[in-house]
Each structure stands twice: as C-alpha cells, then as structure tokens.
Amino acid sequence: MLQKIVDLFTSLKLTIICLAAGMVLILAGTFAQVHLGIQEAQQRYFQSLFVWWPPESSGFQIPIFPGGHLIGAVLLINLIAAHAKRFRWAWRKLGIHLTHAGLIIMLAGGLFTDLFAVESHMQLANGETKNYSEAQRRIELAVIDTSDKEYDQVTAIPDTVLRHSRSIDHPSLPFYINVKNFYQNSRLQMLGQAGADARPVANQGPGAQIAVQPAARATGTDERDVPSATIEIVPKETGASLGTWLVSDALGAPQTFSCGGRTWMITMRPARYYKPYSVTLQRFTHEQYAGTEIPKNFSSKVTLIDPEREVNRDVLIYMNHPLRYRGETFYQAGFQKGDQVTILQVVRNPSFIAPYVACIIVAAGLLVQFGYHLIGFSRKRRAAAV
Fold it and tell me: How does pLDDT run across 35-54, given as a tens digit for each residue?
C-alpha cells in the first residue's frame, strides 16, 4: 500500500494531470472574472482548496473541481517526491538538480505568498500622520470605547464574522451585538428619495432615516462593494435593547451611544493594520508631460518615525523606488485629484525573496546543464578532427 502511494506521488502522470487541471482552472477563473470581478474570482478559484457548487450558499455545498491551492500543493509534493526518489548524485546532473531546486523554491514561494502576503493602502494628505494602513477589500465593524481620555480601546469585528454570526459576544464589550441583516453590497437612500414603500432598517442613529437595498457585487477593477449591516445592541446586565443601528461603509462618521457608564462609538470601515511606527506626508509631487495630463512622475516625501528603534528620517518614495521597513514595502501607487493626497500601497510578503532566488538557481542550473553538454560536444568534435 505504501509503495502504491509513493508511486502515485512520484508519477509523471500526476504531473500531467496537475498541469492540465491548472490550465482548466485558469480558463474557468478567467471567464468567471467577467461576472464576479478579479477579487472574488481569485478567492473562489485560485485561493481555495476546491471550487464549490453552489458558489454562494450557507447550506450544503459540493466540491466540483480542485482549487488553486490544492493543485499547487499536489504539484509541489509531486515535484519534491519525484526528485527525491530519482535523485542520483553526479556532477553531470548538477544542472538538473539545480533546476529542480529552483522550481521547488518558486512553487513554495508562490504558495507562501498567496497564504501569508498582506496588501493594504495608506492614504495621506499633506501634513497628515498615520500609524496604520487600510485594506481595500476587507471591512470591519469597529466598536470604540472613548471613555478614557488618554487612548481609545478598539474592538474590531471582521466582516466574515458579521456575515456568519447572528450574535456576537466579545469579552471586551459589556453588550451583545445581534446581527439582523448583512449586505455584502448595498445602496443607501434617504427615505424621501427611495419611494413611498421604502422603510428604514434601523430605529437609532442616521439609519432611522435611510432605506437600504441589496446590490449586485462590484466586478470592475475600480469598483468595490459597500457592505452594510443592521445590528441590535443588547446590554449584558439588563438585557434591554438599545435599539437597532445601521452600520455602513457609506455612512462615514461614527455613531455614538452609552452603555455600562461608558461612551461608545460604532462604525463600519476598511480593516486596519496598525504599525509600531508612523508615516507623515511632507510633500507630494506630481509632474505631467508638457501639454498633456499624462503623469510623468509622482512621488511622496515622507517622514518615518519609529520611537522604539529611535528612527526619524525623511524618505522619498517614487516609481520603482519603494520604502522597505520592518518587513513591509511602501510603493507609490496613486494619488487623488488636486495633488494633495497620495496613495501608498503597503505590502507585507514574508517570501518576497523566493522568486529572485528561484530564478537565479534555475538560470544557474540551465547554464550548468547546457554548458556541460556544450563542453562534451566540443570535446567530441576535437577528437573526431584529430
């Protein structure tokens, strides 16, 4: 039995099956981007173990095709197992060994990048300072205790919890949060503009004057969903409801209420990644080609302050010249109209060096392999000439 398993994972047939399945998956995922958008298609097809049917269901689902993670993992295991089984050390096979090692590093690096890399954005106006970046596609419900004058205590509840939980009980909160409705994408309208049949979904805060309608998922590259939810706040001590509130990324300003003798704020916002240092935008520069509105160059001069490491220095971030600090890389990604606000892309990728190492090893392996055969061919030609 063990020998059959070894033969299965080291067989060339498994390699061909994985490559064929990968081609089918790429084709299906590319077509799905038309209706789902890039982000959703990536999650369903390439960042999963299986492609499930039906795609959106809270009930029973069946896997209908292997996902990108499963195909990549099996292909990686197949490559390592096959190479280990057939490994025979010889100088004439050094190039083959190096090429296989490079491919293994490349596959493993791609898998680790997909699993652990985090991308976010930091939007800064001139003179503004931030110690956090924000996710573009992830939303959180922030519950903020503002009673302390020195600092705010923030409890962040991810949108995945809001989507699947009906009652949220967190130790840091003196109340329960009952999720009445969750909208992955929504359209908000004032009651006077929504029609005579429109009804508010909340009875507290601005939501008492707003109608919410579910909307189709955003599919454009420059579009994003507007998640909303209606929640009921119930104190743990009394059990008397404080009402139903509408929280949405479209509302903007936080809503305030009192519970347990403390003042609280709730707001739906992009998920934040806090950092032990701060970044201040000193100046944003935007240059254009003469007579056009085509960007020629745009850059951000920022001040990086890290009290823990006693760092206080100015850095210029522009195209192909990012800032790398504490395992994160800041790229100049864009700007807003008026040239007063810059947008920096923040990437944390623990395996960012893997593709470079893999390419160097593969290139070295190919050079060694072809060089070895070239030298052997030259020797044979010289011997034949003699």
Answer: 887 888 888 999 999 999 88
